[in-house]
Amino acid sequence: MTGNLKKVYIFISLTFICNFGLVGLFFALGGKWTMPGSLIISILYMFIPMIVSIFVQKVIFKESIKAPLGISFKFNRWFVIAWLIPAFLAIATLGLSLLLPGVEFSPDMEGMFERFADLIPPEQMEELRTTELFMHPFWLGLFQGLIAGVTINAIAGFGEELGWRGLLQKELGFLGFWKSSLIIGVIWGLWHAPLILQGHNYPEHPVSGVVMMTIFTVLISPLFCYIRIKSRSVIAAAIIHGSLNGTAGLAIMLLKGGSDLTVGVTGVSGFIVLAIVNIGLYFMTRHSDQKTLTIL
């Protein structure tokens, strides 16, 4: 079995041109990376891999979209696993972060307030500090993150995943599970560069954040690819993507200290958790037949 590398090259080229061009055009027209403009561009940014994959698959190569790219809503237990795993990753990362020097447990979320002090107006910050909720914000965030993860976040996640775990994983599968996951992870990480440079995910370290984000996507790519294979659906990949985006904040909500490079799922503590997950995946798959780890 071999993939269509020409299709891969065209998809990557068009995706990067369109995504990088979108951000470049935004600034060329005088845009400022502030709300709501930054949010609109970020949302549009996520849907470009989907649009390009459909264009490449249907228009350029005259091939069908649904089955080859894994668009299946046939439910199985891997959809539930995809939905819940990110919350466990966030909680595990929270716990591991507490082992780092200078990081403390902050149940009153004082550390969280300090992190966003420069981003939220003082009056709104004071309102957040004094507002009484019917449950602790951590549990409320977990509930909201899971609901968003399987709904609106999953839709946005699908915008990316049809490209990464749809087209790319299909065409690069002949390289083997781990090698294809690595390549997809690198492409996926570098694709984030224009957003990271604007402070997304790593507001304190936007330049080194590009490298950190690429390390993160390389580490989490095998898990996403494995979910895609076991579920036989790119929809499950969109769900785990959406759930990750919805629950990632839990990993820093109860922490004081550390930086965007050290704590959180996209920091060193998250990397350690994902490295452990990958070790587990390796031992789970090392005796598997190659066909069982490939999208046919």
Structure description:
It is a single chain. Helix content is 67%, strand content 1%. It is an all-alpha fold and 296 residues long. The relative contact order is 0.17.
Task: Write out key terms for the chains shown.
two-stranded antiparallel ribbon, single chain, 1% strand, mainly alpha, 296 residues, 67% helix
Secondary-structure map with pairings?
Layout lengths: L4 H24 L8 H24 L16 H21 L6 E2 L4 H6 L6 H9 L6 H13 L2 H21 L4 H15 L1 H4 L9 H26 L2 H14 L2 H4 L1 E2 L11 H18 L11
Antiparallel strand pairs: 1-2
Helix pairs in contact: 1-2, 1-7, 2-7, 3-10, 3-11, 3-13, 6-11, 7-8, 7-11, 8-10, 10-11, 10-13
Percentage beta strand: under 5%
Profile the largest sheet: 2 strands, antiparallel
Uncertain segments: none
- The residue fraction in helices comes out at 55-70%
Report how far the terminal alpha carbons are from each other: 9 Å
**Class by helix and strand content?**
mainly alpha
Query: What's the helix count?
Result: 13
List the strand order in the largest sheet. 1-2
The geometry reads as globular
Brief summary of the model shown:
The protein is mainly alpha-helical and 296 residues long. The protein has helices spanning 5-28, 37-60, 77-97, 110-115, 122-130, 137-149, 152-172, 177-191, 193-196, 206-231, 234-247, 250-253, 268-285, and strands spanning 104-105, 255-256. The longest helix has 26 residues, at 206-231.
